[in-house]
Specification:
The complex is a heterodimer of chains A (about 350) and B (about 250).
Chain A: H1 5-11, H2 17-42, H3 50-68, H4 78-82, H5 98-122, H6 127-146, E1 158-159, E2 163-164, E3 167-168, H7 172-198, H8 200-210, H9 212-217, H10 222-248, E4 250-251, H11 258-271, H12 276-296, H13 301-315, H14 319-338
Antiparallel strand pairs in A: 1-4, 2-3
Helix pairs in contact in A: 2-7, 2-10, 2-11, 2-12, 3-5, 3-10, 5-10, 7-8, 7-10, 8-10, 11-12, 11-14, 12-14
Chain B: E1 2-11, E2 14-24, E3 29-33, H1 40-47, E4 55-60, E5 63-64, H2 70-76, E6 78-81, H3 93-100, H4 107-111, H5 117-130, H6 145-159, E7 163-167, H7 175-188, E8 193-197, H8 201-207, E9 212-216, E10 219-224, H9 226-231, H10 233-239, H11 243-251
Parallel strand pairs in B: 3-8, 3-9, 6-7, 7-8
Antiparallel strand pairs in B: 1-2, 1-4, 4-5, 9-10
Helix pairs in contact in B: 3-6, 5-6, 7-8, 10-11
The chains are: A mainly alpha (about 350), B alpha/beta (about 250).
Chain lengths: ~350, ~250
């Protein structure tokens, strides 16, 4: 549908380009949700840093875009000039190059997740305690990114981009291109995750969720597995963030706070935890609802979100996907009976 | 094979286990019996690294096990089946067995793992032995209690551990199932050392082809063949409820 109906609608003029851009953004968020599903849905680790990794990817891309959008002759982004910075900070330098920026945007969150994960998982911290620690780290990073001294634009973040790789971002065909890339990326990441969860590694993750001690007594070094999936999840989120950046044109620390991570978890819970389809559907449906409800009834969104979450927890433990599966089974049952 | 000396564990002042000496040979099938709270499962927990004792020594093939992590102990060749079946309930029976299969278990091998035909043969062979061939595609969590027990035994079998610690394998099984389990364990003991904890006396009689150890209140009461143990007055006392007298004798 997204690969056919939307583009056709766009080219025939029935669907405005902004709708496509909106969906392009949803796809990026769905990519991040896939990461949440790998970590939480499959491995059972409740992490509150997914939005942080998503933002790290977005910041990486944002740094590249900031540097490539500098007016002729200007060497430093404006916010640095205002802060009396005279030289480009060292960690900005590689982001001048697009390929370096691409690699680093994924690598930095990955390494960060690896170090963080190693120290936490080694101590066998899990469940609620893990959630609390990651929450604290997310908050700390939020504060760090908000500071002007960090040289990442402070609370204003990075914004004001006109060009991406030399293309004019206001151009409709560029917007369409980004939509298409997001869709392709979502497809690729989905395919990757699909292979991953069906591999022996993926099955080990579910096994860790079901019985960590059994895994240990069956000679598996659970810590290594936890760290590995934490890193993979972080990098997946970063990919989403990178693509999100050129489509929204702004990244601020506000997108990486704990609340943003909790929202991602709610997407997955609503869509269907432990099913890749669930993560994607949850992210798309909830973001669409967010857009609709914040337009129609701006103040009602939090109540609706909360209500949906309560309904999921009480009546749909397997989320939307689980519900659909159940209905299918019931229908099948009816057909079998009548036949 | 396994030698235990002066092992002491207490939980908050309560001595759970106080084992002077205990040892088993290679390819021996040892049954441990004893009333609830005698420290049987605690003993297994210590051997496989789940619980840390206050003092003592547990040597396996001459190597000290205490202080090692679970994975290390498992790698040395100690396999464990828990009292409450501990399986991967969200995976199919086949996947459970696949994960149990012996071989490199680091992240990278798992990531790039391709099923080899001899691995598959091995899984089928074990599935055949424990009678789970027709349930391979079932989700493990939906198996009956008895089949869960078999599945966990199968996981331990696939690891090919030299020492297998089997905690209450026949719990929740019908007589027929229990008998099959008994035969399986006797068969296993031809190539592995096996320690079995069991309550069901009928089952114990079947599998006690060698020695039976009786644990009472954390202490070794007696060891001997099934006949000896069954006719031992102290054992009868503690099983018939007058546990106090048994304890007094144990202390004296």
């Amino acid at each position: 549908m997204f690969a056919l109906v939307f583009p056709i609608g766009y080219f025939t003029g029935l669907i405005p380009i902004n709708t496509l851009t909106l969906w392009g953004r949803y796809f990026c968020l769905a990519i991040a949700a896939l990461g949440v599903d790998l970590i939480w849905g499959y491995t059972g680790i409740l992490s509150m840093t997914q939005a942080l990794f998503f933002c790290m990817g977005a910041y990486g891309m944002g740094m590249y875009m900031t540097l490539s959008n500098l007016p002729e002759g200007q060497l430093l982004p404006s916010f640095m000039v205002w802060n009396q910075v005279e030289e480009l900070p060292f960690f900005w330098v590689p982001f001048d190059n697009f390929s370096y920026a691409l690699v680093l945007s994924v690598l930095v969150p990955g390494v960060f997740a690896g170090i963080m994960g190693y120290f936490i998982f080694r101590k066998r911290i899990k469940g609620v305690y893990f959630a609390i620690i990651t929450q604290a780290i997310a908050l700390a990073m939020f504060l760090l990114f908000s500071r002007n001294e960090t040289m990442l634009g402070g609370t204003n973040g990075l914004t004001d981009f006109k060009y991406f790789l030399g293309f004019d971002l206001r151009d409709n065909s560029v917007k369409f291109g980004l939509y298409a890339w997001s869709l392709i990326a979502l497809g690729l990441v989905y395919w990757y995750c699909h292979n991953l969860v069906n591999s022996k590694f993926g099955k080990s993750l579910v096994a860790i969720r079901d019985s960590e001690s059994r895994m240990r007594f069956t000679k598996y070094k659970v810590t290594h597995y936890n760290v590995a999936i934490f890193v993979i999840g972080a990098m997946v989120a970063a990919v989403g963030g990178m693509l999100y950046m050129p489509q929204t044109g702004i990244i601020t620390p506000g997108r990486m706070d704990v609340q943003a991570s909790i929202e991602m978890i709610i997407w997955v819970a609503l869509g269907g935890r432990g099913k890749l389809k669930g993560a994607v559907i949850g992210a798309l449906v909830l973001n669409l609802m967010y857009s609709v409800f914040t337009t129609v009834l701006p103040s009602s969104w939090l109540y609706i979100l909360g209500g949906l979450f309560v309904i999921t927890v009480l009546y749909l433990p397997k989320g939307i996907v689980g519900m659909v599966d159940q209905m299918k089974e019931k229908l099948n049952g009816m057909f079998v009976k009548t036949a | 094979m396994l030698e235990v000396k002066d092992l002491k564990v207490s939980f908050g002042g309560l001595t759970a286990l106080n084992l002077d000496t205990f040892s088993i040979r290679k390819n021996e099938l040892r049954v441990i019996i004893g009333p609830n709270g005698a420290g049987k499962s605690t003993f297994m927990d210590i051997v496989c690294g789940k619980t840390k004792p206050q003092q003592g020594s547990v040597k396996f093939k001459g190597l000290e096990l205490l202080g090692r992590k679970e994975v290390e102990i498992a790698k040395l060749g100690v396999g464990r089946k828990f009292q409450k079946p501990s399986i991967f309930s969200g995976l199919t029976v086949y996947d459970n067995l696949l994960l149990g299969l012996d071989g490199p278990k680091d992240v990278f091998t798992s990531y790039f793992y391709k099923l080899a035909s001899y691995d598959k043969d091995r899984i089928m062979e074990v599935a055949e032995k424990v009678g789970l061939v027709n349930d391979l595609t079932m989700i493990a969590g939906s198996l009956s209690h008895g089949k869960k027990q078999w599945l966990e035994i199968a996981i331990v079998m696939l690891q090919d551990s030299e020492l297998m610690l089997i905690d209450e394998p026949a719990a929740g099984m019908s007589d027929v199932e229990a008998e099959k389990t008994g035969n399986l364990l006797c068969d296993l003991s031809k190539k592995h050392s096996v320690i079995v904890i069991e309550h069901d006396m009928k089952f114990v009689e079947q599998i006690a082809i060698e020695k039976v150890s009786v644990l009472v209140r954390g202490q070794l009461l007696t060891e001997g063949t099934f006949q000896e143990v069954r006719n031992n007055q102290e054992v009868i006392d503690c099983y018939l409820g007058s546990a106090n007298s048994a304890q007094q004798k144990a202390h004296s």
